[in-house]
Amino acid sequence: MHRLLSVTPPSSLVDSKVTIRATGLEANSFVTIRSVSKQEMPSGVVKYEGHAHYIADSTGVVSVPDQISLGGTYTGAETMGLFWSMRPSPGQRFGVRYIVKDVTKPMIVHLSLHRGHLNTEALQTAEVEATATVKRWYMGQDVERITVRCGRLRGSVFKPKGPGPFPGVIDMFGSVGGLTEFRAAMLASHGLVGYALPYFRYDDLPQHMWDLELEYFMEAVDWLSSQPFVKPGGIGLVGVSLGAQMVLATASHFPDKVKAAVTINGCHVNTMVDLKLNGEALPFLPFDLYNVRPAATEGAQCLFHSYKAIYDINEDDPRIYRIENNRTCQYLFIAGEAEAAWNSCHYAQEAMRRLARHGCHNYQLLRYPDAGHLIEIPYAPVGIMIYSHVAGSVVDHGGTVRGMAKASEDSWPKMVMFLHTHCGRDKPKL
Protein backbone atom coordinates (compact mmCIF):
# COMPACT_ATOMS: atom_id res chain seq x y z
CA MET A 1 0.00 0.00 0.00
CA HIS A 2 1.38 3.41 -0.99
CA ARG A 3 1.91 5.63 2.02
CA LEU A 4 1.36 9.36 1.58
CA LEU A 5 1.96 12.34 3.87
CA SER A 6 0.20 15.57 2.87
CA VAL A 7 -0.08 19.16 4.15
CA THR A 8 -2.92 21.46 3.13
CA PRO A 9 -2.26 24.18 2.20
CA PRO A 10 1.44 23.64 1.37
CA SER A 11 2.20 27.38 1.71
CA SER A 12 0.58 29.77 4.19
CA LEU A 13 1.13 32.48 6.79
CA VAL A 14 2.77 31.38 10.03
CA ASP A 15 -0.33 32.15 12.08
CA SER A 16 -2.72 30.09 9.93
CA LYS A 17 -3.55 26.43 10.51
CA VAL A 18 -2.78 23.58 8.15
CA THR A 19 -4.12 20.04 7.87
CA ILE A 20 -1.63 17.17 8.05
CA ARG A 21 -2.78 13.70 6.95
CA ALA A 22 -1.07 10.34 6.56
CA THR A 23 -2.84 7.80 4.34
CA GLY A 24 -2.19 4.32 2.99
CA LEU A 25 -1.26 2.94 6.42
CA GLU A 26 -2.11 -0.42 7.91
CA ALA A 27 -5.28 -0.22 9.98
CA ASN A 28 -4.57 0.57 13.65
CA SER A 29 -0.82 0.75 13.03
CA PHE A 30 1.54 2.78 15.19
CA VAL A 31 3.30 5.69 13.43
CA THR A 32 5.38 8.76 14.26
CA ILE A 33 5.17 12.05 12.36
CA ARG A 34 8.25 14.22 12.66
CA SER A 35 8.75 17.94 11.91
CA VAL A 36 12.16 19.51 11.20
CA SER A 37 13.13 23.10 10.41
CA LYS A 38 16.61 24.58 9.99
CA GLN A 39 17.54 28.14 10.78
CA GLU A 40 20.64 29.95 9.58
CA MET A 41 22.33 31.88 12.37
CA PRO A 42 25.62 33.84 12.46
CA SER A 43 27.14 30.96 14.40
CA GLY A 44 25.88 28.35 11.92
CA VAL A 45 22.77 26.33 11.11
CA VAL A 46 20.49 25.41 14.02
CA LYS A 47 18.03 22.53 13.63
CA TYR A 48 14.68 22.33 15.42
CA GLU A 49 12.42 19.33 15.53
CA GLY A 50 9.22 17.91 16.99
CA HIS A 51 7.35 14.63 16.70
CA ALA A 52 4.08 12.99 17.65
CA HIS A 53 2.86 9.41 18.12
CA TYR A 54 -0.37 8.36 16.43
CA ILE A 55 -2.43 5.22 15.82
CA ALA A 56 -3.99 4.97 12.36
CA ASP A 57 -7.74 4.51 12.24
CA SER A 58 -9.53 1.48 10.77
CA THR A 59 -9.11 2.87 7.24
CA GLY A 60 -5.35 3.41 7.61
CA VAL A 61 -5.52 7.20 8.03
CA VAL A 62 -4.00 9.63 10.54
CA SER A 63 -5.59 13.10 10.52
CA VAL A 64 -3.55 15.32 12.82
CA PRO A 65 -6.33 17.86 13.52
CA ASP A 66 -8.77 15.12 14.51
CA GLN A 67 -6.71 12.49 16.28
CA ILE A 68 -4.83 12.40 19.56
CA SER A 69 -1.06 12.32 19.85
CA LEU A 70 -0.17 9.73 22.47
CA GLY A 71 3.39 10.95 22.98
CA GLY A 72 6.32 12.85 21.53
CA THR A 73 6.96 16.56 21.96
CA TYR A 74 3.25 17.09 22.67
CA THR A 75 0.17 15.06 23.47
CA GLY A 76 -3.53 15.44 22.72
CA ALA A 77 -5.45 16.66 19.68
CA GLU A 78 -3.36 19.62 18.52
CA THR A 79 -3.71 20.77 14.92
CA MET A 80 -0.45 22.75 15.01
CA GLY A 81 1.45 20.82 17.68
CA LEU A 82 4.12 19.67 15.21
CA PHE A 83 5.04 23.32 14.68
CA TRP A 84 4.90 24.95 18.12
CA SER A 85 6.45 21.98 19.93
CA MET A 86 9.63 21.99 17.85
CA ARG A 87 12.74 22.35 19.99
CA PRO A 88 16.49 22.44 19.31
CA SER A 89 17.71 19.07 18.06
CA PRO A 90 20.26 17.06 20.07
CA GLY A 91 23.69 18.66 19.93
CA GLN A 92 22.46 22.23 19.41
CA ARG A 93 23.75 25.01 21.63
CA PHE A 94 21.79 25.43 24.88
CA GLY A 95 19.74 28.61 24.92
CA VAL A 96 19.19 29.18 21.19
CA ARG A 97 15.99 30.98 20.22
CA TYR A 98 13.98 30.48 17.06
CA ILE A 99 13.84 33.97 15.59
CA VAL A 100 13.51 34.67 11.88
CA LYS A 101 16.08 37.11 10.50
CA ASP A 102 14.94 37.29 6.87
CA VAL A 103 11.15 37.56 6.63
CA THR A 104 11.25 37.68 2.84
CA LYS A 105 12.00 33.95 2.91
CA PRO A 106 9.64 31.30 4.31
CA MET A 107 10.14 29.11 7.32
CA ILE A 108 10.43 25.68 5.68
CA VAL A 109 9.25 22.69 7.70
CA HIS A 110 10.02 19.17 6.54
CA LEU A 111 7.60 16.48 7.69
CA SER A 112 8.34 12.77 7.66
CA LEU A 113 6.38 9.60 8.47
CA HIS A 114 7.94 6.67 10.37
CA ARG A 115 6.80 3.23 11.50
CA GLY A 116 6.30 2.73 15.23
CA HIS A 117 6.40 5.15 18.13
CA LEU A 118 9.96 6.53 18.08
CA ASN A 119 11.78 8.96 20.34
CA THR A 120 14.03 11.85 19.28
CA GLU A 121 17.20 9.77 19.37
CA ALA A 122 15.75 6.98 17.22
CA LEU A 123 14.35 9.46 14.71
CA GLN A 124 17.82 10.71 13.82
CA THR A 125 18.48 7.51 11.83
CA ALA A 126 14.99 6.04 11.34
CA GLU A 127 13.78 4.91 7.92
CA VAL A 128 11.38 7.36 6.28
CA GLU A 129 8.05 6.08 4.92
CA ALA A 130 6.79 9.33 3.37
CA THR A 131 7.61 13.04 3.35
CA ALA A 132 6.01 16.43 2.84
CA THR A 133 7.23 20.02 2.95
CA VAL A 134 5.35 23.13 4.02
CA LYS A 135 6.31 26.80 3.64
CA ARG A 136 5.32 29.18 6.42
CA TRP A 137 5.51 32.93 5.71
CA TYR A 138 5.82 35.90 8.04
CA MET A 139 5.55 38.33 5.12
CA GLY A 140 2.47 37.84 2.96
CA GLN A 141 2.57 38.11 -0.82
CA ASP A 142 0.62 41.39 -0.74
CA VAL A 143 3.09 43.07 1.61
CA GLU A 144 6.02 45.31 0.72
CA ARG A 145 9.11 46.17 2.77
CA ILE A 146 10.60 49.70 2.97
CA THR A 147 14.01 50.38 4.52
CA VAL A 148 13.97 53.38 6.87
CA ARG A 149 16.95 55.76 6.98
CA CYS A 150 15.54 59.16 7.88
CA GLY A 151 17.66 61.37 10.09
CA ARG A 152 18.75 59.06 12.88
CA LEU A 153 15.73 56.78 12.46
CA ARG A 154 16.46 53.24 11.28
CA GLY A 155 14.47 50.10 10.70
CA SER A 156 11.97 48.62 8.28
CA VAL A 157 8.37 49.41 7.42
CA PHE A 158 6.06 46.65 6.23
CA LYS A 159 2.82 47.71 4.60
CA PRO A 160 0.07 46.21 2.48
CA LYS A 161 0.65 46.97 -1.20
CA GLY A 162 -1.28 49.98 -2.43
CA PRO A 163 -1.68 53.61 -1.35
CA GLY A 164 -3.79 52.95 1.75
CA PRO A 165 -4.08 54.62 4.10
CA PHE A 166 -3.71 51.84 6.68
CA PRO A 167 -3.53 51.91 10.49
CA GLY A 168 0.08 52.52 11.59
CA VAL A 169 1.93 50.60 14.31
CA ILE A 170 5.48 50.84 15.69
CA ASP A 171 6.84 47.48 16.87
CA MET A 172 9.70 47.10 19.36
CA PHE A 173 11.54 44.18 20.92
CA GLY A 174 13.60 44.02 24.09
CA SER A 175 17.13 43.72 25.41
CA VAL A 176 18.30 41.54 22.51
CA GLY A 177 18.66 44.75 20.49
CA GLY A 178 19.12 44.87 16.74
CA LEU A 179 16.40 44.77 14.10
CA THR A 180 13.65 42.17 14.52
CA GLU A 181 11.11 42.23 11.72
CA PHE A 182 8.87 39.18 11.98
CA ARG A 183 6.05 40.73 14.04
CA ALA A 184 5.92 43.92 11.95
CA ALA A 185 5.76 41.79 8.79
CA MET A 186 2.91 39.76 10.26
CA LEU A 187 1.02 42.91 11.26
CA ALA A 188 1.28 44.11 7.66
CA SER A 189 0.07 40.71 6.48
CA HIS A 190 -3.12 41.50 8.41
CA GLY A 191 -3.72 44.96 6.96
CA LEU A 192 -1.63 47.20 9.25
CA VAL A 193 1.51 49.23 8.61
CA GLY A 194 4.19 47.72 10.85
CA TYR A 195 7.33 49.75 11.55
CA ALA A 196 10.01 47.47 13.02
CA LEU A 197 11.93 50.02 15.09
CA PRO A 198 15.44 49.13 16.34
CA TYR A 199 16.77 51.41 19.05
CA PHE A 200 20.19 50.02 19.89
CA ARG A 201 22.77 47.52 18.66
CA TYR A 202 21.92 48.13 15.03
CA ASP A 203 23.69 50.04 12.24
CA ASP A 204 24.85 53.43 13.62
CA LEU A 205 22.43 53.45 16.56
CA PRO A 206 23.80 53.27 20.13
CA GLN A 207 25.48 49.97 20.84
CA HIS A 208 24.16 49.79 24.40
CA MET A 209 20.64 50.10 25.77
CA TRP A 210 21.74 52.59 28.42
CA ASP A 211 22.46 55.23 25.76
CA LEU A 212 18.84 55.84 24.73
CA GLU A 213 17.05 59.14 24.17
CA LEU A 214 13.28 59.28 24.45
CA GLU A 215 13.16 61.82 21.62
CA TYR A 216 14.20 59.03 19.23
CA PHE A 217 10.88 57.29 19.85
CA MET A 218 8.99 60.58 19.48
CA GLU A 219 10.68 61.09 16.11
CA ALA A 220 9.57 57.61 15.06
CA VAL A 221 5.98 58.43 16.03
CA ASP A 222 6.09 61.73 14.13
CA TRP A 223 7.69 60.15 11.05
CA LEU A 224 5.24 57.24 10.81
CA SER A 225 2.26 59.52 11.44
CA SER A 226 3.34 61.74 8.54
CA GLN A 227 3.47 58.98 5.94
CA PRO A 228 0.73 59.24 3.30
CA PHE A 229 -0.01 55.51 3.53
CA VAL A 230 -0.77 55.75 7.29
CA LYS A 231 -4.26 56.61 8.52
CA PRO A 232 -4.49 59.95 10.34
CA GLY A 233 -5.83 60.10 13.85
CA GLY A 234 -3.04 58.40 15.81
CA ILE A 235 -0.84 55.33 15.70
CA GLY A 236 -0.24 52.27 17.86
CA LEU A 237 2.80 50.98 19.71
CA VAL A 238 3.64 47.33 20.41
CA GLY A 239 6.51 46.15 22.57
CA VAL A 240 7.72 43.14 24.50
CA SER A 241 9.87 43.26 27.65
CA LEU A 242 12.15 46.33 27.45
CA GLY A 243 10.29 47.28 24.27
CA ALA A 244 7.08 47.36 26.32
CA GLN A 245 8.71 49.87 28.64
CA MET A 246 9.56 52.05 25.66
CA VAL A 247 5.89 51.81 24.66
CA LEU A 248 4.72 53.15 28.03
CA ALA A 249 7.43 55.81 28.18
CA THR A 250 6.54 57.07 24.70
CA ALA A 251 2.79 57.01 25.29
CA SER A 252 3.25 58.89 28.59
CA HIS A 253 5.54 61.65 27.37
CA PHE A 254 4.16 62.16 23.85
CA PRO A 255 0.43 61.49 24.11
CA ASP A 256 -0.84 63.48 21.13
CA LYS A 257 -0.30 60.87 18.42
CA VAL A 258 -0.23 57.56 20.34
CA LYS A 259 -3.73 56.11 20.50
CA ALA A 260 -3.08 52.40 21.14
CA ALA A 261 -0.41 50.77 23.31
CA VAL A 262 0.22 47.04 23.58
CA THR A 263 2.68 45.82 26.21
CA ILE A 264 3.69 42.16 26.25
CA ASN A 265 5.21 41.18 29.58
CA GLY A 266 6.49 44.67 30.28
CA CYS A 267 6.88 46.82 33.37
CA HIS A 268 5.17 50.01 34.56
CA VAL A 269 8.43 51.28 36.05
CA ASN A 270 11.48 52.64 34.22
CA THR A 271 14.07 49.90 34.78
CA MET A 272 17.44 48.84 33.38
CA VAL A 273 18.06 51.82 31.08
CA ASP A 274 19.38 55.32 31.67
CA LEU A 275 16.72 56.81 29.39
CA LYS A 276 17.31 60.49 28.61
CA LEU A 277 14.82 63.27 27.86
CA ASN A 278 16.01 66.75 26.87
CA GLY A 279 19.54 65.62 27.67
CA GLU A 280 18.74 64.65 31.26
CA ALA A 281 18.54 61.09 32.58
CA LEU A 282 15.14 59.94 33.79
CA PRO A 283 15.11 58.14 37.16
CA PHE A 284 15.28 54.38 36.79
CA LEU A 285 15.47 51.23 38.89
CA PRO A 286 18.72 49.36 38.17
CA PHE A 287 19.05 45.66 37.51
CA ASP A 288 19.98 43.89 40.76
CA LEU A 289 22.69 41.46 39.72
CA TYR A 290 23.00 40.11 43.25
CA ASN A 291 19.49 38.66 43.12
CA VAL A 292 20.10 36.57 40.01
CA ARG A 293 19.64 32.95 41.09
CA PRO A 294 20.13 29.53 39.53
CA ALA A 295 17.04 28.31 37.70
CA ALA A 296 15.55 24.86 38.19
CA THR A 297 17.01 23.86 34.82
CA GLU A 298 20.72 23.20 35.10
CA GLY A 299 22.88 25.81 33.38
CA ALA A 300 20.19 28.52 33.37
CA GLN A 301 19.66 31.58 35.55
CA CYS A 302 16.46 33.06 37.02
CA LEU A 303 16.05 36.87 36.97
CA PHE A 304 12.65 36.99 38.68
CA HIS A 305 13.95 38.49 41.94
CA SER A 306 16.25 41.06 40.31
CA TYR A 307 13.52 43.71 40.44
CA LYS A 308 11.96 42.93 43.82
CA ALA A 309 12.54 46.57 44.82
CA ILE A 310 9.56 47.43 42.58
CA TYR A 311 7.23 46.08 45.27
CA ASP A 312 8.36 48.89 47.61
CA ILE A 313 7.77 51.73 45.12
CA ASN A 314 4.87 54.07 45.97
CA GLU A 315 2.57 55.64 43.42
CA ASP A 316 4.35 59.02 43.51
CA ASP A 317 7.75 57.56 42.65
CA PRO A 318 9.13 59.40 39.58
CA ARG A 319 10.33 56.11 38.09
CA ILE A 320 6.72 55.06 37.40
CA TYR A 321 5.48 55.89 33.91
CA ARG A 322 2.72 58.52 34.05
CA ILE A 323 0.49 56.64 31.62
CA GLU A 324 -2.55 58.58 32.87
CA ASN A 325 -1.11 61.53 30.90
CA ASN A 326 -2.46 59.84 27.77
CA ARG A 327 -6.18 59.55 28.41
CA THR A 328 -7.07 59.07 24.74
CA CYS A 329 -4.80 56.04 24.37
CA GLN A 330 -6.20 52.53 24.73
CA TYR A 331 -3.88 50.18 26.67
CA LEU A 332 -3.73 46.42 26.16
CA PHE A 333 -1.59 44.53 28.67
CA ILE A 334 -0.62 40.95 27.79
CA ALA A 335 1.03 38.96 30.58
CA GLY A 336 2.07 35.43 31.44
CA GLU A 337 1.30 34.28 34.96
CA ALA A 338 4.18 31.79 34.85
CA GLU A 339 6.73 34.51 34.04
CA ALA A 340 10.25 33.83 35.29
CA ALA A 341 12.00 36.92 33.90
CA TRP A 342 10.02 39.30 36.13
CA ASN A 343 6.52 39.72 37.60
CA SER A 344 4.81 41.21 34.56
CA CYS A 345 1.29 40.21 35.67
CA HIS A 346 1.72 42.25 38.85
CA TYR A 347 3.21 45.15 36.89
CA ALA A 348 0.24 45.18 34.48
CA GLN A 349 -2.20 45.20 37.38
CA GLU A 350 -0.33 48.07 39.02
CA ALA A 351 -0.47 50.04 35.77
CA MET A 352 -4.22 49.48 35.52
CA ARG A 353 -4.76 50.46 39.15
CA ARG A 354 -2.91 53.68 38.43
CA LEU A 355 -5.13 54.43 35.47
CA ALA A 356 -8.24 53.68 37.52
CA ARG A 357 -7.09 55.95 40.37
CA HIS A 358 -6.87 58.78 37.86
CA GLY A 359 -10.36 58.15 36.54
CA CYS A 360 -9.24 56.35 33.37
CA HIS A 361 -10.97 53.26 32.03
CA ASN A 362 -8.93 52.89 28.83
CA TYR A 363 -7.29 49.54 29.56
CA GLN A 364 -7.68 45.77 29.39
CA LEU A 365 -5.59 42.77 30.42
CA LEU A 366 -5.03 39.40 28.79
CA ARG A 367 -3.37 37.03 31.27
CA TYR A 368 -2.37 33.41 30.72
CA PRO A 369 -1.73 30.93 33.57
CA ASP A 370 0.96 28.75 31.96
CA ALA A 371 2.68 31.39 29.83
CA GLY A 372 6.09 32.91 30.35
CA HIS A 373 7.92 35.92 28.94
CA LEU A 374 8.01 35.55 25.15
CA ILE A 375 4.40 35.47 23.95
CA GLU A 376 4.78 35.81 20.19
CA ILE A 377 3.24 34.76 16.87
CA PRO A 378 1.30 31.47 17.14
CA TYR A 379 2.39 28.18 15.57
CA ALA A 380 6.14 28.86 15.65
CA PRO A 381 8.66 27.11 17.93
CA VAL A 382 8.31 28.28 21.52
CA GLY A 383 11.32 29.50 23.53
CA ILE A 384 11.74 29.18 27.30
CA MET A 385 15.44 28.67 28.05
CA ILE A 386 17.05 31.47 26.04
CA TYR A 387 20.36 33.33 26.15
CA SER A 388 20.02 36.85 27.62
CA HIS A 389 22.39 39.72 26.86
CA VAL A 390 21.40 41.36 30.16
CA ALA A 391 22.48 38.38 32.27
CA GLY A 392 25.22 37.15 29.95
CA SER A 393 23.86 33.62 30.33
CA VAL A 394 20.92 31.39 29.48
CA VAL A 395 17.83 32.59 31.35
CA ASP A 396 14.61 30.79 32.28
CA HIS A 397 11.81 32.86 30.72
CA GLY A 398 9.08 30.80 32.38
CA GLY A 399 5.95 28.98 31.29
CA THR A 400 5.37 25.65 29.60
CA VAL A 401 5.64 24.98 25.88
CA ARG A 402 1.92 24.23 25.64
CA GLY A 403 1.04 27.24 27.81
CA MET A 404 3.12 29.56 25.65
CA ALA A 405 1.58 28.15 22.48
CA LYS A 406 -1.96 28.62 23.78
CA ALA A 407 -1.22 32.17 24.98
CA SER A 408 0.17 33.12 21.57
CA GLU A 409 -2.77 31.54 19.77
CA ASP A 410 -5.30 33.45 21.88
CA SER A 411 -3.58 36.82 22.24
CA TRP A 412 -2.33 37.37 18.69
CA PRO A 413 -5.70 37.78 16.87
CA LYS A 414 -7.03 39.85 19.78
CA MET A 415 -4.02 42.16 19.54
CA VAL A 416 -4.44 42.57 15.77
CA MET A 417 -8.12 43.41 16.21
CA PHE A 418 -7.28 45.85 19.04
CA LEU A 419 -4.85 47.71 16.79
CA HIS A 420 -7.30 47.84 13.89
CA THR A 421 -9.96 49.21 16.23
CA HIS A 422 -7.94 51.95 17.92
CA CYS A 423 -5.30 53.10 15.40
CA GLY A 424 -6.15 55.79 12.89
CA ARG A 425 -9.36 56.98 14.52
CA ASP A 426 -10.17 60.62 13.90
CA LYS A 427 -12.20 60.73 17.12
CA PRO A 428 -10.75 58.22 19.58
CA LYS A 429 -13.23 56.73 22.01
CA LEU A 430 -12.38 56.24 25.69
UniProtKB/TrEMBL annotation:
Please list the GO biological process terms of this entry: acyl-CoA metabolic process; fatty acid metabolic process
List, for all copies, the residue spans of the domain called Acyl-CoA thioester hydrolase/bile acid-CoA amino acid N-acetyltransferase. 15-149
- One GO molecular function term? fatty acyl-CoA hydrolase activity
* Pfam families named in the record: BAAT_C, Bile_Hydr_Trans
Q: Which residues form the BAAT/Acyl-CoA thioester hydrolase C-terminal domain?
A: 213-423
Q: Which domain of life does the protein's organism represent?
A: Eukaryota
Q: Which family does it belong to?
A: Belongs to the C/M/P thioester hydrolase family.
Q: Which PANTHER family match?
A: ACYL-COENZYME A THIOESTERASE 1-LIKE, ACYL-COENZYME A THIOESTERASE-RELATED
The name this protein goes by in its record: Acyl-coenzyme A amino acid N-acyltransferase 1-like isoform X1
